[in-house]
From TrEMBL:
InterPro entries: Cadherin-like_dom, Cadherin-like_sf, Cadherin_CS, Protocadherin/Cadherin-CA. It is a single-pass membrane protein. It comes from the Eukaryota. Keywords: Calcium, Glycoprotein, Membrane, Repeat, Transmembrane, Transmembrane helix. This is Protocadherin-23. It comes from Saguinus oedipus (Cotton-top tamarin). Residues 656-668 have a biased composition (Polar residues). PROSITE patterns: CADHERIN_1, CADHERIN_2. Residues 639-654 have a biased composition (Basic and acidic residues). It holds the Pfam family Cadherin.
């Protein structure tokens, strides 16, 4: 017998659908297949999963009510009501007032929800009240909902009134269309007669809500919108009447208290149109069968109260009764499925409106299925006497035993068995069909009559049975058929054995003699009979081929024995051959992927489930998993040959009974290949563990990709055979990177130097940071910070620091700034900052500059010798030897000496007056390599002598073309220096750059401006003399603009 489970795929909601009906189809696997169907009804039972809700007060809102002061105790203020979509006690709602903020001025009816006063209210004492009403269902556990009720006390007018202050009560049905409701005056004539039509009526502004309007001149009150009892059940508002007929206007107040009368405008409703209910037939009288739960949208007590009654569609007495108020359906008489299997009821729900003719109702059809219980015993229908010839063949039908059980299903399913009398097992009774057949030849000479006690047993719980005595008379035939010693032989043979393996030997006897007792055996045609053969003389059964238990485990052979008589007689027997399992299959992995990706830094978790199956049976089939080293042996006790996943089931030509097949698999990598690929050797640092039974592969702690980025896990799956067989699979685990490392420099402080004459783009420093992450997380870009001078730039990719502008040590000798290495992660990049200090090394790029040139000295003829006449001073802004100067005369002097280090010039001997003025050409040289030299002029005058040389103009202007070659001449026309002109060199001083050039040709650099100011002196080749004409040559290199040269 097969069992089919009915499973719900989604969560059921009784409030959405309380019953489900489906048809179940069962199909066998025969050819052709046969099937049967049955209807299944599923009733969803209620649980208390819905809270009550207040239709009058939506969630987050409050219910506002007005009540007039001074009214008597027990006055109805309002009625609250709550609905619950559950059923039964889960839908029964009771009301209470929350203890927090409660007032003893009001009470609530727990069943109806009516809120009434417990004392006379006074506006002066308290103008408003706020109370929380709780609606609680009766489920287990109970659920509740709250509604906040704001009660406003309306004061009575305290002043004098022309028209008496009064209170008028009205009751208006909720379905009334907009119309005139009443008039506040007796008649229009009365108004005109007494007040000259000067009364004015109005509703107090605070009391207006849009449902009521009043004619200000006639006092007629109108309903402007339909009322809804379920929303608001009571209205209280004030109408002010003002009298303008007197000189002094007077007013009065009429309080209108309007109760909305609930109309029965909602019919009861059932959730389903058809309800299928089941109940067992043996339940006692008074058993609860079902609870009907109809809902009514009306709010008042009677219009929303539901009464139930039923009507049966079955003839005869109705065995069910329904409670008119609670809807509970119970049994009132015993049930008998065999008499009435199904009862159809019409259940009607009616509200209890006061006017019977206004009552609304709704019906639902309920199909009550009476479930069977095992209350009937099987009854034999077949005759208790049978006859059979003694020469019938084994398996011949002797008698058909039948019994009937009126129950249904398993309770009515009858099975048959022989209880007694079949001591020699001559007969076999099929338990399902009741067919009684012979299991061995009958022999009239041995026994002429068999008396069997036959049992008919149903399948109910508990089971019921009946017995019958069956008398079988054997009819005599003059023969003896051979008889097997056993009607059923059970044998076993191991799989994988060579053809010819012994299975069993069957034996038969024949009481005849001679040729009639000579027996021949043969295997009768049937399924797989060709896999065996039998010795026709001895009855020995052997295999004809190698058996495989995984293909077929059990073979049933029918063996026939016949004697040598004519006609020959025969007998049959059955051999049940079981193939014993041998551990000839290694576990086979069910692999979905050989590659696993795991994010680093995660908590221990299951990352993969290894699955394997084994075609063997028993312990040979049970498997367990281990993580092994790539070159390690299997765990102790698991020394079986490794059989990786691959060509399972293929024959190994050299295998015997003690060997196991081994095949290569694409999933395997040799140790050499793993090393070449950079894969770690196995379960490094025991980062992984595997559940031996389930195969769940999990991490033992957080992984660190920077420590180990890939794992090659060798998973061994071993069966529990003896010896065991196993398979190995290699899983490649790739650890995914998380951005958990910042770029790292070898040092946090870099120091370098660069010559000041370095070309733009000169490499200063190579920065290199390392980020252990990978991908964008490990890709680094470089940038500079705090480098405002613009002298340096860094390649964002390579980290090469280069000059980006010309350098000048004399302007700035060192630069300190920061470099940042930042990764390129798209989720929160990380960075590291280092400090870089670059020193600008000096280059001999400045000439020495004399503080004064030419230098005029006045000397007396009486000045003593060896006395310092003048001290020369010169400056060189370069550093070290490049800025250290020495002084000398261009030509050797006998009358003067010069200290090359201090620049002191001493008078060695006194010259005669005709030598004056004495012109001495000076030379100042720095110690750079190559050295730079500046020449100057020292003019020694005799005391009282006037200077003879001067320029005739203070400013000379000349032009030189741009892009002219080196050595080009600038012509200055009309230059007269005291009417003398000389061929001479030019001594220049660049005023705007602070650099002096003395007695040399001027090289104009590319970075000069548009104009150059310089001073000029004159010199002859043999000493300083005044001549008549001056020629001035200015040499320029690489000028791209048109400079204006100024001479001074």
């Amino acid at each position: 017998m097969f069992v089919g489970e009915l499973i719900s795929w989604v969560a059921l909601d009784r409030e959405h659908q309380g019953h489900h009906q489906m048809t179940v189809l069962v199909t066998d696997r025969g050819s052709p297949p046969r099937n049967a169907t049955m209807a299944v009804y599923v009733s969803v039972t209620d649980i208390n999963d819905n809270k009550p809700f207040f239709p009058q007060c939506l969630p987050g809102k409050e219910l506002h009510v007005k009540v007039l002061e001074g009214q008597p105790v027990n006055m109805l203020v309002t009625t609250v009501f709550a609905k619950d979509p559950d059923e039964g006690n889960n839908a029964e709602v009771v009301y209470s007032v929350s203890s927090e903020g409660s007032s003893d001025h009001f009470k609530i009816d727990a069943n109806s929800g009516e809120i009434r006063t417990t004392t006379i209210l006074s506006y002066d004492y308290r103008p408003s009240y706020r109370m929380t009403v709780i609606a609680t269902d009766q489920g287990m556990p109970p659920l509740q909902e709250q509604a906040v009720v704001n009660i406003q006390v309306i004061p009575l007018s305290k002043g004098r009134a022309i028209i008496s202050q009064n209170i008028r009560h009205l009751v208006i049905p909720e379905n009334l269309k907009p119309t005139k409701i009443m008039s506040l005056i007796k008649s229009p004539d009365h108004l005109h007669q007494h007040y000259n039509g000067k009364l004015h009526f109005s509703i107090v502004a605070d009391d207006k809500d849009g449902h009521f309007e009043i004619d200000s001149s006639t006092g007629d009150l109108f309903l402007s919108k339909e009322l809804d009892y379920e929303t608001t059940s009571h209205y209280l508002f004030r109408v002010i009447t003002t009298d303008y007929s007197k000189n002094l206007s007077l007013s009065s107040t009429v309080f209108l208290s309007i109760d909305v009368e609930d109309q029965n405008d909602h019919s009861p409703s059932f959730q389903d149109e058809l309800i299928v209910i089941s109940v067992e037939e043996n339940v006692p009288i008074g058993t609860l069968v079902y609870v009907f739960n109809a809902k009514d949208g009306d709010g008042s007590f009677l219009n929303g109260r539901i009464q139930y009654y039923i009507e049966s569609h079955n003839p005869g007495m109705n065995p069910f009764l329904i409670h008119p108020s609670f809807g509970t359906l119970v049994t009132v008489s015993p049930l008998d499925r065999e008499s009435i299997p199904t009862v159809i009821l019409t259940v009607t729900a009616s509200d209890q409106a006061v006017n019977v003719t206004d009552r609304r109702l709704r019906s639902v059809t309920a199909q009550i299925v009476i479930l069977d219980v095992n209350d009937h015993k099987p009854t034999f229908m077949s005759f208790p006497i049978a006859h059979v010839k003694e020469d019938v063949t084994v398996g011949s039908l002797v008698h058909h035993i039948t019994a009937h059980d009126p129950d249904e299903g398993r309770n009515g399913k009858v099975t048959y068995s022989i209880l007694s009398g079949n001591e020699n097992m001559a007969f076999m009774l099929d338990e399902s069909s009741g067919l009684l057949t012979t299991t061995c030849p009958l022999d009239y000479e041995m026994k002429t009559q068999h008396i069997l006690t036959v049992l008919a047993l149903d399948d109910g719980t508990p089971t019921l049975s009946s017995s019958q005595t069956l008398t079988i008379t054997v009819l005599d035939v003059n023969d003896e058929a051979p008889v097997f010693k056993q009607q059923l032989y059970e044998a076993s043979v191991k799989e994988n054995q060579n053809p010819g393996e012994f299975v069993i030997r069957v034996e038969a006897l024949d009481r005849d003699s001679g040729v009639n007792s000579k027996l021949q055996f043969e295997i009768m045609p049937g399924a797989s009979f060709e896999l065996f053969q039998i010795n026709s003389d001895t009855g020995e059964v052997v295999t004809t081929t190698m058996l495989d238990r995984e293909i077929q485990e059990v073979f049933t052979l029918r063996v026939l024995v016949r004697d040598g008589g004519v006609p020959s007689l025969s007998g049959t027997t059955t051999i049940l051959c079981t193939v014993e399992d041998e551990n000839d299959h290694a576990p086979e992995f069910i692999v979905f992927s050989y590659d696993i990706e795991v994010l680093e830094n995660q908590e221990p978790e299951v990352v993969y489930t290894v699955l394997a199956s084994d075609m063997d049976a028993g312990s040979n089939r049970a498997v367990e998993y281990h993580i092994i080293g790539l070159k390690q042996p299997p765990p102790p006790g698991k020394e079986g040959n490794e059989v990786p996943e691959g060509r399972k089931g293929e024959e190994d030509p050299g295998k015997n009974g003690n060997n196991h097949e081994q095949t290569e698999t694409p999933a395997q990598c040799s140790h050499r290949e793993q090393k070449a690929l950079g894969m770690p050797n196995g379960n490094t640092d025991e980062y992984f563990a595997i559940n031996e039974m389930s195969g769940e592969l999990s991490t033992t702690r957080g992984l660190d990709r920077e420590q180990v980025s890939n794992f090659t896990l060798a998973i061994l799956c071993s069966d529990l055979g003896d010896p065991p067989r196993s398979s190995v699979i290699h899983l490649q685990v790739r650890v995914l990177d998380a951005n958990d490392h910042s770029p790292s420099f070898p040092t946090l402080y870099y120091q370098s130097s660069v010559r000041e004459d370095a070309e733009v783009g000169t490499v200063v420093l190579m920065l290199s940071a390392v980020d252990k992450d990978e991908g964008l997380n490990g890709q680094i870009e470089y940038l500079l910070t705090d480098e405002a001078s613009g002298a340096f730039t860094i390649d964002p990719t390579s980290g090469t620091l280069r000059t980006s502008n010309t350098l000048d040590r004399e302007a700035r000798s060192q630069h300190t700034f920061s470099a940042v290495a930042r990764d390129c992660s798209i989720k929160g990049s990380r960075s590291t900052t280092v400090i870089i200090k670059v020193y600008i090394t000096d280059v001999n790029d400045n000439d020495p500059v004399l503080e004064q040139n030419p230098f005029d000295v006045f000397l007396s003829l009486q000045s003593p010798t060896n006395q310092t006449t003048v001290i020369l001073k010169a400056d060189d802004p370069d550093l070290g030897p490049n800025g250290t100067v020495v002084f000398s005369f261009v030509e050797t002097q006998s009358m003067f000496s010069i200290d090359k280090h201090t620049g002191e010039i001493q008078f060695q001997q006194s010259p005669s007056s005709e030598y004056f003025p004495i012109w001495l050409q000076l030379k100042v040289t720095d110690q750079g390599v190559p050295a730079r030299t500046t020449t100057g002029l020292l003019v020694i005058h005799m005391e009282g002598e006037d200077t003879k040389i001067s320029f005739s103009h203070h400013l000379y202007k000349g032009l030189v073309t741009e892009n002219c070659e080196a050595g080009a001449t600038a012509i200055y026309n009309g230059m007269e220096f005291n009417h003398f002109t000389y061929d001479s060199k030019i001594a220049l001083e660049e005023k705007d750059r602070g650099t002096s050039y003395s007695q040399k040709k001027v090289t104009l650099q590319e970075d000069f401006g548009l104009s150059i100011n310089f001073g000029m002196t004159a010199q002859t080749g043999n000493g300083w003399e005044v001549r008549e004409n001056w020629q001035h040559q200015v040499h320029k290199q690489d000028v791209e603009s048109d400079p204006t040269l100024k001479q001074q």
